[in-house]
Amino acid sequence: MQINRRDFVKLLGGSLIGFTVGGVGEALLKIPNAVMPILYKGPKTESWKLTTCAKCPGACGLRIRLVDGLPVQAFGNPLSPINFGGVCPMGLTSVESLYNPDRLMSPMKKVNGKFQEISYTEAYGAIVSELRKNIRQGDEHKIAFIAQTESVFMANLIQMFMNGIGSRRLYMDNFVGNSRLPYQNLKMDHPDFIDFEHTDYLLNFGSQITEISESPLFFSRAINSLRERKGKLVTVAPKLTPSGFKTSRWMPVMPENFGDIALAIAYVIISDGTYDKSFVQNHFEDFDTFRELVIQNYTPSAVQARVGVDADQIISTAREFANASAPAAYFDEAILHSSNGLRNAYAIIALNALKGFAAFGKLSEAGLKGLKIDSNRDGGNTWNKNNLIGESDIDVLFIYRSNFIFNSPNAEDLRKAVSRIPLVVSFSPFIDETTELADLIIPDHDDLEKLDAYLSTTIGSPILSMQQPVVKSFYSTVHTGDVITSLIGDLNLQEGWKDRSYESYLKAAIKPIYDHGVGMLMSQKKPTGIEKSLQQAGWQLVPYSDFDDFWQQLLRYGGWWNPFPKVTGYTPEVLLKTDQLMSTKDKGSHPAAAQLRLNIFFRNFDYKGNLLRNPVLTEQFGMDRDIYYTTWVEVNPKTAEKLSIAHRSKVKIKTEKGGFEAIAIHSPTTMPGNIDIPFGLGHTADKRMLGINPVHYSDDVFDEHTGEPSYSETLVKIL
Amino acid sequence: MPKYGMVIDLNKCTSCQACVTACKLENNVQIVPIEDAINGRAMFWMKMLTMEYDGDYPDIKPKALPRNCMQCDEPPCIKVCPVRATYKRDDGIVAQIYPQCIGCRYCMANCPYTVKVFNWHKTEQPQEIEKSYNPDVSVRPKGVVEKCTFCVHRLQIAQEKAKAEHRGLEPGDYVPACVEVCPVSAILFGDLDDPQSDVSKASRDYRAFGLLEELGTVPKVRYLNAIESEE
Amino acid sequence: MTYRDMNDEDETLFKPIYQTGKNFYILAAIFSTVFLIGIGLYIRQLVLGLGVTGMNEPVTWAFYIVDFVFFIGISHAGTLISAILRLSKAEWRRPITRMAEVITGIVLAIGGLHPIIDLGRPDRIMHLFERGRLQSPLLWDVTSITAYFTASTIYLYLPLIPDIALLRDRGGKLENLYKILAWGYKGTPEQKHALEKAINILMVMVIPIAVSVHTIIAWIFGMTLQPGWHSTIFGPYFVVGAIYSGIAALLIVMIVFRKAYHFEDYLKEIHFQYLGTLLLIMSLLWTYFTFAEYLTAFYGHEPAEMRVFFYKFNGGYAPFFWLMVFCNFILPVVILSNRRLKKLPGILMASIAVVIGMWLERLIIIIPTLANPRLPYPTGVYIPSLTEISLFAAAVSAFVLGFMGFSKLFPLISIWEIKEGRLQSVHEVSARLREYLPGRHDEKQVEATLKAEI
Fold this sequence. Notes:
- The complex is a heterotrimer.
- Chain A is an alpha/beta fold.
- In chain A, 32% of the residues lie in helices and 18% in strands.
- Chain A contains 22 helices and 28 strands.
- Chain A is globular.
- Residues 11-38 and 588-592 of chain A have low confidence and may be disordered.
- By secondary structure, chain B is an alpha+beta fold.
- Helices cover 23% and strands 18% of the residues of chain B.
- Chain B contains eight helices and ten strands.
- In chain B, strand 4 and strand 5 (94-96) form a beta hairpin.
- At the B-C interface, strand 2, helix 3, helix 4 and strand 6 of B face helix 7 of C.
């Protein structure tokens, strides 16, 4: 259609006039709708894909809604027996993580202090040549690996890699692995799960069980049903977090004193004689020395003087514990976060032993045949990230998804140590506080773009949750599993290594499940009646024809589990020696008389310092205290009165490492001798974050054996 | 006509705040600039309130409450709107008509629960939020009032789907986002007028109460009191 | 002799129209600047949204609504004083009525625009008229303010006609404008009679309209469920407060223009004494209402109400509250009940204090209730922004500029009424007095006595 200039001007003029006359008001204020999803140019068809959330150890099933093939929202997978369709805030924001503009788009290399994009071949080549050099020179031990993953398969792969190289410098930060460390150190068998159907008493030592734990969503439901059956939840913790809002009793105790409480309860049970005598006779080797220790040092009144909890409370808790038919004293990784964490864990194990581990269960070998993969640190291997500071002969450091500079108090020393290392390779998808120090970055896929699998037993059955890519990766990121399998292959680290990709490795690792033939895909309905008995006997009809079909369906339906596992009670040999319970720390006076302590608590918006880049979670972080983008501290109202601190006033907090400002909130959920501060704010590598990272102001106190930092033993002054 | 209502069981609620996040993401609620958030303009349709702490230390019973729009049967907000930008539908949902609202904020001043939020600015959203907008929900322009709508867009989609499949709307076809994602199924939703539905039975439970009931707003979001465990 | 300095008896009243001093231009420049700054910031608000103000959740109404109520309150000055004094045939009203009516006209225009400034979507204002809901107090507000504005403009215009006619007859400047506006008024007895009848109808009509306006504004708050607002006394309380602030504003205007335009001969001491007494009465009345309001709230001790109460009494808003009590009660009563202090300077001080105090009173009513919602979250703190403060300054400047502009076009004191007063009042008042006093008097005898006296 021909339009000459005159017509065009007329058209323009006419439309302008019409525009003006017709709707001056609206037109003037009309802001262009920049919110129309410009990516969705297609017919807006909706589809769904199932995957698994990898943000915390829970491995909850996710159901991703895709519009025109691009992810829009995340919901829970109702088929998953872990979360039954529920999701926590971290999982809900999976899609926002995918679209985060700070994601690295390709491998990076540090040139003159700045990161430059390079190709994958170049990066991979650099790593291979460096590793070859070390192997040739016999310097295998100069290679270190710090990893954080909740997938036992990935952990196993990394383990194989390091074993193949021949270095023991592997620090595997895996929640379940860490929770089982006390059992491992005692060379004891570990329990697989707590039998929530039979438990009627849960004594929780310091775990934020419904917020950050082995399976927060599963535990939330389990505890609700426990309470519905008139069971009891007792919380022993330094702060009453939402995990303890529904507790029957809160015993405010500092984490370093958990062992004292456990042993005081043991005292009552032993003196009452209500312990499981047959179990103790048959399985608790060192019981007599143990009894001596407890009777002499852990009377409730003595513990009251040392720790500050009422002796009556201890005695009633102990009697309830003893009277319950299946009590459980629970701890998880959080117990390691104090200066004598392991010792406290041993005490709790001993306490459980007194009642024969009645509430714990074990999945028998047959149920998990072929899937016995331990993600724990190599038996007896206590190398951890703090060793980086002392050891100056490390040539290569691999970092997989661990932001340890952020969540360690000795960050400055660690920074110096890492800067000394010639080649630091990071696999993080972002430039976080730890990756800032890297020389080479091969960014991993985002959680929605990668393939992985999670094996857990927390729900009382073995369950394999599959994580699959819901969308093809947007950028030139590389699955770290692929990198490591290629490295193992190229450097000949394992005999007969055939896998060139993580997928083939994973398929091989999962094949035993298919071979074994028990259990069912999450798509199938849990059988009842005759079908159930048949399945329990080992006969069942399966909807897949061969392994490839099984694999396809596994990915399609989100996972596999065995609803009728062969379960046995957990009756280990208690190989605890009494001298392992002896305190090496000077107990000192009553904590209330000492100086104020800074206690760091966690929220379910961040797991170990990697998640708060999400703008939704960042805004929501302090919403329930009506505080936004600022750090706050919680003070007990009586303490606040004594120190004349008004509610919601600005205060200055001073520790050894420095001072910072925060807003003070009166909260009776705080112990009078503590100042509570939330963990998760204060990312310096992210310009959109604000707030203070309290870990960097904490004193350098670590668990003597494992090197885990203590989060509650910093002395603090408040002004 | 069904009358949609909600019952939140405080005994089950673990204050995990999944409902808060889900609501925000489902309804494309804006993220306000940092200064605005600090000055009290953060926009949350569903909020987790900590109402009070009962008991003396250490026997403290915190009372945390997820609070969305009460969807009153006698809403104070619709009485005072000068242009009928907020009104009560036949199925009980108190709706907002964004193109009609003139932004006088009278409804906000009259709501005794302060559930309504206002678009003070039109801010540039972070990139990842813009890319993951829910295509079913319109993004509001500046200068209008908004609030929880029981995810009424999901009702529309469910009705269209039921019509296409030549059947009626069944319970469970339509649930708001907060109900869907609650990990412990603490939020029940459905037809209050159907005496057989879960939510109707729960709303008549001995533990049921409504916030600020004495004002006569007849809130259709009711709560079940937490069961105190004996010492 | 030109039209500028004819030797009329009341030449002083004509002077301001024809002569402009240097001060006038300086002041006009200053106020115009302030006004334009305000307009500029408002345009910025239109573009960026209401976020440029300090309002938030829960304090969703702040300065703009406070200013709105304040200005509409002042409008009661004019029409009410002028109408009531006319109705009660008070002779001392004559130099006052014009200024009072002008106050009303200007301030209603300014105040009526304030809700539009406060809207989030002013481009949708037609929705109010196309699809308005009559059940909403805001719609009643729109109706009543429109009615009041119409009535008071007409009530300003009608008594202005004879003065315009005088100006037209002098000829000269703006003669054509005056010709049109005078509507052919010649002063004939029929025209006079018709005018008087019209004025009489209006002056009776205007009073209930005026009362309804501020009652309805009070009901915008009173009809809500919020603690501190949901009070039955609000309607009369606001009306009393409005009249109070109106009289104070009127006094300020009178004193200022008396000085500026040398009206000393017309606005005498006695006028200020009388208005001062009226101000004192209103002060006591206002204090009574305030006391009743707060005592009942305190006595009932309902928790939500008490939170608001203590916030005003000894909480965040205590300084404003007690300043208001000082400005509205203590200072005026002390000055106006003391014969030595009740002189022009004192009255001016009292009036300024009252105007400030009444603005504070609106602030105290609106913001503490919003800042203390029934549910504990969100907590509310309000800090006014530059936009809001400068728009208030712009509104005040608009008022002053409007007045100054008016004074250049029309006489600020009703010339024909002064003339009429000179000619007829003495006679009328005497006649009335005779009617009140005991004893019968023959009419003719009365006439004769009167003629002798004059």
